[in-house]
Amino acid sequence: MAIWQTAALLVIFAASAWLAFVAVLCVSDPGKARAGLAAMGSTWAIQVGEHGLRGLAGAAMIMRADASKSPVAFEAIGWFVLATSVLILLLPRNWHNAYARWWAARIPTWAFRIASLPTLIGAVLLAYAAI
User: Fold this and answer.
1) What rounded mean pLDDT belongs to the chain?
2) Which residue among 21, 78, 84, 88 has the highest number of C-beta atoms inside a 10 angstrom radius?
């Protein structure tokens, strides 16, 4: 396996682990999950950290697509993730934060718990499809 393929796989595993962590947080402490959602885009560091890492995960999916279990889907989703991260970084940061706060104020606590299941399933499927 080429070093770039290994690096891409490690980035995807890290993204999967992050999604699994978010799923556990949503079910165990939905208040913290809500606060985390409301904080998205609140500072330049959070904005760049969030979308820089998200864009890196998208790029890793593109690089790993041919070796994945679903090359066409992996590449398409990777391009979507990368492109939307770049777009969000180009838009005014306060738009992103206002949108995040708007949703955080409207999503009921129980919905965070319910959202944890598809988030965890997505984390597992992402890691599984990458190998």
Assistant:
1) 97
2) 78
